[in-house]
Amino acid sequence: MWWFGKNKERKVIQPAGRILRARFDAAQTTADNQRHWANADSLSADGAASADVRKTLRNRSRYEIANNSYARGIVSTLANDVVGTGPRLQMLTDDDNGNGIIETEFMNWASQIRLAQKLRTMRMARASDGEAFGILAINRNLNSPVKLDLRLIEADQVTMPWSKYFNQQSQVDGIEFDEFGNPASYFVLKNHPGSMSLVFEQDYNAVDAGSMVHWFRAERPGQSRGIPEITPALPLFAQLRRYTLAVIAAAETAADFAAVLYTDSPANGEAANLEPMDVVQLEKRMATTLPDGWKLGQIEAHQPTTTYGEFKNQILNEIARCLNMPFNIAACNSSGYNYASGRLDHQTYYKSRWQFRYYR
């Protein structure tokens, strides 16, 4: 009973039709796609790129670049195109004489410390290791009024020493951050972990962030260390090499058989009896007779097929895509291009190259 007025019955308003619940097909897990998404996780950027994961990716990337001519050429071309002959200083003050003196001294200093060579090494390290490190230090041995030098170190040396493992709240594998999330200092091992020294020491130097050049690209918010830029292409490089070796092995196997004796007669027929799988040594430019009922033939080579080159080009094109590099630059082959299409494909590559030059 209502406190005021007459009794009233509650009326429940039924919605017209069914309630529509939209879903994403990509969020569904089915028997067909569960194996494909088995490795998808929700780890943080630094959790996904942990020290062990980055070490494995670095080792595999370095191995592929050292043993695959396509990988070596792609990384070398990228470094040469980004760095070129090195940076140049252009002064725009009103004093033309002073501008020339400063520009000349900068060129002399850059030549003394081999700046262009070190920048190319850093660009190649960013592609193979995911990051490059350089320490700004004073070098008294430089034959220049400016004693500033750039000392390169590998990513393996920037790691957390054993004595620091128990205080990792503000540290991420060799980098200590301040309260605002900015790098404050870097822990650099004095000896490379993979050096041939009989005794590996965990002695390290704490380098201030202002004296460290850490060049990498953060793909996710909160990412503190880099992963190799050719990481998505590593399985493709392996596929390309395995496919090439398999095709060569099949062609060599077919070519190893100089001739094969075969017969169309049934077993125990009119053909002469021969020992199966017997091997006969042949001489060059000789004439011979065959046993009764036997014919001389050769194994037909079905490899490489007519699509062999097209398949390799497609794999190479997919490999170069993760570096924003067109196929004709990655393959160093423009035979299938005209001048206009070649220029069009280069636009994305040139934009990416300029972005690398101005990226900090």
**Coarse shape:** extended
Strand/helix succession = HHHHHEEEEEEEHEEHHH
Oligomer description: single chain
- Using only CA atoms, what is the Rg? 33 Å
Q: Which structural class do the helices and strands define?
A: alpha+beta
The biggest sheet amounts to:
4 strands, antiparallel
- Mean pLDDT score, rounded? 86
Please report which band the strand proportion falls in: under 5%, 5-15%, 15-25%, 25-35%, 35-45% or over 45%. 5-15%
Number of helices: 9
Q: Could you tell me the number of beta strands? A: 9
First-to-last CA distance? 74 Å
Uncertain residue segments: none
The side-by-side strand order for the widest beta sheet comes to 3-4-5-6
Helix content: 25-40%
What does this entry look like structurally?
The chain is of the alpha+beta class. Among the domains are: 45-228, no CATH class; 258-298, no CATH class. Helix content is 36%, strand content 12%. The protein has 9 helices and 9 strands. It has helices at residues 45-48, 51-67, 69-83, 96-112, 115-129, 234-256, 308-321, 327-330, 339-358, and strands at 131-138, 148-153, 171-172, 175-177, 183-189, 204-208, 212-216, 260-262, 295-297. The strands form 3 sheets. The protein has a 4-stranded antiparallel sheet with strand order 3-4-5-6, with no helix packed on it. A 3-stranded antiparallel sheet has the order 2-1-7. A two-stranded antiparallel ribbon has the order 8-9. Helix 6 (234-256) runs antiparallel to helix 7 (308-321). The longest helix has 23 residues, at 234-256. The chain is extended and about 100 Å long.
